[in-house]
Amino acid sequence: MPADWITTLDTPFLLIEKSKYLRNIERLYSRVDALGSVVRPHLKTLRSIEAARYLLKQSDSPATVSTLAEAESFAAAGYTNLLYAVGIAPHKLPRVAALMSKGVNIHILLDSERQADAVAAFGKEHRLKFSVFIEVDCDGHRGGLPPDSDALPDLARIIEKSGSTLTGLLAHAGESYNCRTEDAILAAARAECAAIKTAGERLRTHGYACPVLSVGATPTAHFADDLNGISEVRAGVFTTFDLVMKNVGVCRLEDIAISVVATVIGHNREKGWVFIDAGWMALSRDRGTAPQSEDYGYGLVCNLNGEPYENLLVTTTNQEHGIITLPPQSAFEVDNFPVGSRVRILPNHACATAAMHPQYHVLSEDGQGHELWQRIVGW
Amino acid sequence: MPADWITTLDTPFLLIEKSKYLRNIERLYSRVDALGSVVRPHLKTLRSIEAARYLLKQSDSPATVSTLAEAESFAAAGYTNLLYAVGIAPHKLPRVAALMSKGVNIHILLDSERQADAVAAFGKEHRLKFSVFIEVDCDGHRGGLPPDSDALPDLARIIEKSGSTLTGLLAHAGESYNCRTEDAILAAARAECAAIKTAGERLRTHGYACPVLSVGATPTAHFADDLNGISEVRAGVFTTFDLVMKNVGVCRLEDIAISVVATVIGHNREKGWVFIDAGWMALSRDRGTAPQSEDYGYGLVCNLNGEPYENLLVTTTNQEHGIITLPPQSAFEVDNFPVGSRVRILPNHACATAAMHPQYHVLSEDGQGHELWQRIVGW
């Protein structure tokens, strides 16, 4: 039986099952711990102080953020070890400096001479020592310098000459989201570690301590088998998982801790359509499962206990309408979903769906209680 | 030259050009006025009190909303004539009733006996007369009853027998977003009007006054050539337009009043990639132009004056990264977009992009001033 409040709270709303959330955290943390490294969780998925409490045991536990808005909010909540893992835009340095002046150990990321020069110039002008990571490209996914790039020691020189510190290197195996087999993920994890270790050794040969080697993406974090020499592992979506991660093979459907609760508001009997009050405003426009082995449309429909209906998908979304299409020869007809009844939708991409909600409704571990977690918004 | 604040405000941010915004409003309002009807603007695109001031001249000017959160916020701002144009879920009636008790003339929408029964029962129990619209299906797009459905007079009977009022009928030519020619849009507009007039005449034959016939979608609203007998026209995205509407043929690129300002944060020279700090968090995951005549990726890149670069698109988005891919044989190379420089991105779908931003930065009509409009969030 679902908790009373899940059947009465106004819809649509985002539901997090805390028992699954905590189990997912324990799974990754214990794995990385056993391999001798530590998790620097990426807080961008839920962007929530309340959610982060279960990830960060101490005020100086390492954390990753995707915006300065997050950094400022987590700093205000007392967290002091924050890696801003998006390439720094020079105009953002005053906000970084403001956090440093409050005692926050914020690390910035760069991969170009122009950025290094800007950091050096701002640091000199304001007598500030920034903590800098250089991004290393391990798979051609996005940014970063190849491990054998001559620019690596050049950037290190600019940073350290200006008085700032080259704290470490960062690699992100973003291509691992496209993996189809466990072997492929394991290979991506090994390549991610190999690339950053190669780059780290080169810098140390050049005389830079560069103490921190930071890797991670949710798939590689769960399949890496050797973290020797790797200082920390970043991962974000692992706390809730989603249908994309289920397709990649990192979790099972029953591990997904996030769903959207919606109410049936109408039918088109001829077409076998059930309308719900969760459109793309509640589910997001993310179609991350479209190119994967199993395309879940805009989400997989479950009953209020979170048990999936086989092959029942949200196939279309408008702003505030979702359409569930009953498949031909389905075991269901529209009257199985009367107006006023409720369903839960597992999302394609937890980060994107969570981003549509100003707050999250959390089912306590006892399966009844109701907590409210707030989302940090803006940039 | 762009206004100073556009070159210095932290990025990413959503920019609205007020001169275009007002011109788009004037275009539709004068057209509908000349055809003898009135616009009931759909406020879901920007969901902003400040934005609505230019659409609603009086406190009782007709308006459309997509959520009760909007209805409550616009009511608190003094607006009293609000059509909640999503099929009513029975559990939402207490919030509707609360608005009615404050003197708000809120209209609800339904198309099923179960909804009509719920409205009748709640109305009787609480001695409330709801103002009800029945949804009419004009093109098989989503919900509503066919104009010849016997359920139409059945629902009218349930509503009026319970003491509530059948205020009118609503049709939405949602399929017009898929039109490819002006002739096709005109045909959709005529079909939308014909369907609702047929349904209205049938109800009047059955003795129901059903005074209001409400039609509309942005394409049909701009191409309808005969609004005789049509009480009001709804449209939403027309205030800002977007790339989807440009492709449908309703506006030109230079009419688009909404864009996202982003900063260049890196390059991949080998691949011709320019990284910006606007990912799908700022642009949305909407790929509405993908099936259209011209696919704009995640948006069309412009300079800070809003002038588009030919064929320059945001081709990929991650959460806080956008990737602009320079086409082969492009007139540009990555050094034309140095780290720290800024671009503007025209979005596929204004409703989806606006939904990612808690506030909008508005360029005043003088081309210099800066206004801030707040977005209403949640449900």
Keywords:
homodimer; TIM Barrel; alpha/beta; 2 domains; elongated
Outline:
Chain A has 379 residues and is an alpha/beta fold. Chain A is built from twelve helices and 17 strands. The first copy, chain A, folds into two domains: 4-14 and 251-374, Lyase, Ornithine Decarboxylase, Chain A, domain 1 (Beta Barrel), CATH 2.40.37.20; 42-235, Alanine racemase (TIM Barrel), CATH 3.20.20.
Structure description:
- The structure is a homodimer of 379-residue chains.
- Chain A has two domains: 4-14 and 251-374, Lyase, Ornithine Decarboxylase, Chain A, domain 1; 42-235, TIM Barrel (Alpha-Beta Barrel), CATH 3.20.20.10.
- In chain A, strand 7, helix 8 and strand 8 (212-215) form a beta-alpha-beta unit.
- In chain A, helix 6 (113-126) packs parallel to helix 7 (151-161).
- Chain A has twelve helices and 17 strands.
- Chain A has 379 residues and is an alpha/beta fold.
- An eight-stranded parallel beta sheet of chain A has the order 2-9-8-7-6-5-4-3. The first copy, chain A, has a six-stranded antiparallel β-barrel with strand order 10-11-14-13-12-15.
- Helix content of chain A is 30%, strand content 23%.
- Chain A has helices at residues 4-8, 18-34, 49-52, 68-76, 93-101, 113-126, 151-161, 182-205, 218-223, 243-248, 280-283, 350-354; strands at 13-17, 38-39, 63-65, 81-87, 105-110, 131-136, 165-171, 212-215, 232-233, 258-268, 273-276, 300-302, 308-317, 322-325, 342-346, 359-363, 370-374.
- Chains A and B meet through helix 6, strand 10 and helix 11 of A and helix 6, strand 10 and helix 11 of B.
